[in-house]
Sequence to fold (294 residues):
Amino acid sequence: MKQNNFFIAILILGVFLFPSCEKDVILDFKHEPQLCLNCILNPDSLVSASLTLSHSLDNSGNFETVDNGTITLYKGDEIYGKLEGKGNGRYVLNKKPVVGEEYKIIAEAKNHSTISAITTIPDFPVIEYSKEITGHSSYDSTLSVFDLKVQINDKPGKDNYWVYQNWVVSGRRYGGVSREINAPFVDDFNKSIDTEAQYGFRLFLGVRLSDEGYDGQSMDFILSYFVEPTKYRYTEAVHFLNADEHYDKYIKTTIINRKKQSSDLPFFEPVQMYSNIEDGYGIFGSCAITSIKL
Fold:
């Protein structure tokens, strides 16, 4: 009984000596809007960019577009062109960038700080491939199933590869993550264990291949189980994207953030989205894409 009284006394004393740690936390959402530029250069496409204003964390509405801005693109030290405003924050230039060249973009708008960024266009991935028939479809024995044996002939220097595909179902085109790849150069940052998957895991929203340790070498792997095309369903192409360092980091942080948001955890620490825009927000990067038409 004395022991119980002792513990009660300790608890009462604790209430006075160690008051509650609870307090109201007021988050400061004050935010000064800054220019936000999004532009990915691709040697196969005309230059296109969007210009908006950033907003505070407690603002879940649409971003305000900037239509009175001036966007200038430089190739090296020379002006490559001024992007023409098309409305709704969209700007275009009727030119295509060139592989291996460095580009700088500068965006200006009244009452806002000038923003800028630099990127260098990467090389197109050098791809060799072959098809190997491995059997017949489980749902239609008249349709052959084949694997795609792929070889990336990596060039010296840092390269960041992403693999994805697009397919057609009943006339509608879809695109996204490629089949899983089991190879030592696969970046498993977005790996999730799945015992029902072919290799026992899945790569959430993306397949990234790193040439670290394989620089200038051959990177061989297999994309398995393609079904022979039919009138209603077929894989149209597999694409291999080589991203510059900025676009690569942007894609990776986007996937990490999406993976956390879709997890079962009630709380998670948000991931800071990668941005290389000086004095603003957004992304200015580049990529080159080699496609295998199936």
